[in-house]
């Protein structure tokens, strides 16, 4: 007799699952991929099921750009619920219509289409109720906001599961919106035990799908403090990573609309080349300094579990992509898996560990936009140790985090990044500070020295595991910028042995990227 779950899925013994050829591969698809290439996703998943066990994790749908996507619409609905009137109704209706329309265009089976349309209706009705009650309470709490946002992934995954079924790939929608049992985590949120427990719980959800492909909501659970608050946008990457860890997957595949990681942003540098592989530390550095290919928390989890991450393109599934391959186990620092575990290093070129075969070259060049430099020149009364301590204390107080720092005994320059504008004006208008935290920080910092702000800047970074062995590379980096009349506001080199960064004017950013790529990458051919 066939052993089945309550939902009808065939139960496969866990031991048997592990014996299946190839093991588990976890596939993560972002919102724009679901929005624009849903049928391409079906093909990728269908092909995956032929060679091993496949689990799918999806973000909320975006028809064109993330800005106009479901998550942003849901957040706008939450803001509308904070004001009087039912202005959120039209947003809910737009979300509903959008999903139904997508299904009508792609799902052929009338039964599957009908069932999906009814599910969408129910989810949207429930969403309206959530918004209504938030309005009555005159507050959208973090918890309510998370519940509102979770609808995006639910709708998206219901759609992908329906489409897979329609194309004869047996699939099962998996809702993780209440996977986190708050009483179990004992107030300790996002520590390693929490992630370990969660990974195990996610694997159980997958096993419960039996022989069907699980289509898992990237939104996972009622984390105290809020998923959006604590993890931020891009939480689906982390969810996929935890599923991969729980399943001890053979590989985590992150499907995007770009062939993989390039030597520079291919949309800005036409001669950029696809990199077959990068190290976890390089990928982390690139993500932090503007080439956001993968959420940083994601990498930490999978690399610690020694699972390779492959970046692939939904528009070109046959392409090899880029693989982020975990380091050898002895080099993984369990507390900080993206960093070298050795305490003592040598930067000497004769160091045995630095004898890399083949030509030495930087891995990639990247730009981080929306940077502002904050300079503090100490007044003479303060001693240097106390000076730096006070500055960092005030940055903490005002929730400002520093991307890059250069300091002398009595002067400190810090590059700050913010997605939202902290300053307005410029051109013929006076600059003014729009952000409360920045205003508070400037007022407090002024007690310790003279403060000035330099807006409209960008960080340009050269990243590569071989940089530390490339004698003269820093000189070349700065002279290429100088030869092209690109003024450097601030330099930081040495803190990371795989990164050389400096701050330049935003208006020069794309030109800098191109001249650096031309001069530091192509001459090495
Ligand atoms: N070095 C790089 N390699 C690949 N993509 C890069 C790089 N630097 C920046 N990017 C940009 O990162 C984006 C990632 O791909 P995409 O799938 O479009 O993003 P998202 O997942 O945010 O929708 C692309 O828009 C690409 O232009
Ligand atoms: N839907 C969420 C979470 C997410 O991870 O999105 P994406 O995978 O498309 O970056 C967002 O837009 O932030």
From TrEMBL:
Catalysed conversion reaction: L-aspartate + ATP = 4-phospho-L-aspartate + ADP
Biological process terms in GO annotation: 'de novo' L-methionine biosynthetic process; homoserine biosynthetic process; lysine biosynthetic process via diaminopimelate; threonine biosynthetic process
Gene Ontology CC: cytosol
Pfam families, A to Z: AA_kinase, ACT_9
GO molecular function: aspartate kinase activity; ATP binding
Domain ACT: 462-525
This enzyme's EC code(s): 2.7.2.4
Keywords (A to Z) from UniProt: ATP-binding, Kinase, Nucleotide-binding, Transferase
Pathway: Mycotoxin biosynthesis
Similarity field: Belongs to the aspartokinase family.
Name the record gives this protein: Aspartokinase
Organism from which the protein derives: Mytilinidion resinicola
């Amino acid at each position: 007799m066939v052993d089945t779950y309550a939902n009808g899925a065939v139960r496969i013994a866990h031991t048997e699952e592990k014996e299946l050829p190839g093991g588990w591969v976890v596939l993560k698809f972002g919102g724009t991929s679901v929005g624009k290439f849903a049928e391409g996703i079906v093909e990728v998943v269908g092909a995956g099921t032929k060679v091993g066990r496949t689990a799918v994790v999806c973000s909320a749908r975006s028809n064109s750009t993330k800005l106009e996507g479901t998550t942003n619409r849901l957040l706008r609905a939450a803001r509308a619920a904070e004001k009087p009137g039912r202005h959120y109704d039209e947003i809910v209706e737009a979300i509903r219509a959008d999903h139904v329309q997508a299904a009508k265009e792609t799902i052929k089976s009338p039964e599957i289409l009908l069932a999906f349309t009814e599910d969408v209706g129910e989810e949207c009705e429930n969403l309206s109720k959530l918004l209504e009650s938030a309005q009555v309470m005159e507050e959208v709490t973090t918890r309510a906001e998370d519940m509102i946002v979770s609808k995006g992934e639910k709708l998206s995954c219901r759609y992908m599961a329906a489409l897979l079924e329609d194309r004869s790939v047996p699939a099962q929608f998996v809702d993780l919106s209440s996977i986190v049992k708050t009483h179990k985590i004992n107030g300790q949120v996002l520590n390693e035990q929490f992630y370990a427990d969660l990974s195990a719980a996610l694997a159980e959800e997958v096993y419960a799908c039996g022989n069907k492909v699980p289509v898992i909501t990237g939104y996972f659970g009622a984390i105290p403090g809020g998923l959006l608050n604590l993890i931020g946008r891009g939480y689906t990457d982390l969810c996929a990573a935890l599923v991969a860890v729980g399943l001890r997957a053979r590989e985590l595949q992150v499907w995007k609309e770009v062939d993989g990681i390039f030597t520079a942003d291919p949309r800005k540098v036409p001669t950029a080349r696809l990199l077959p592989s990068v190290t976890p530390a390089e990928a982390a550095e690139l993500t932090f300094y503007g080439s956001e290919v993968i959420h940083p928390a994601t990498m930490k989890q999978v690399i610690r579990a020694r699972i390779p991450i492959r970046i692939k393109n939904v528009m070109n599934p046959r392409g090899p992509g880029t693989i982020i391959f975990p380091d050898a186990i002895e080099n993984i620092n369990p507390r900080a898996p993206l960093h070298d575990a050795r305490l003592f290093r040598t930067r000497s070129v004769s160091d045995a560990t630095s004898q890399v075969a083949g030509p030495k070259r930087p891995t990639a060049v990247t730009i981080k936009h929306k940077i502002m430099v904050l300079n503090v020149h100490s007044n003479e009364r303060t001693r240097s140790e106390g000076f730096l301590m006070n500055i960092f204390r005030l940055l903490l107080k005002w929730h400002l985090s520093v991307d890059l720092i250069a300091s002398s005994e009595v002067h400190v320059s810090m590059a700050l990044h913010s997605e939202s504008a902290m300053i307005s004006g410029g051109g013929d208008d006076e600059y003014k500070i729009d952000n409360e935290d920045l205003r508070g920080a400037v007022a407090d910092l002024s007690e310790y020295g003279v403060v000035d702000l330099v807006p409209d800047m960008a960080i340009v970074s050269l990243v590569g595991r071989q940089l530390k062995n490339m004698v003269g590379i820093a000189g070349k980096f700065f002279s290429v910028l100088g030869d092209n009349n690109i003024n450097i506001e601030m330099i930081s080199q040495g803190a990371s042995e795989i990164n050389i960064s400096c701050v330049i004017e935003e208006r020069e950013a794309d030109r800098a990227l191109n001249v650096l790529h031309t001069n530091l990458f192509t001459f090495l051919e």
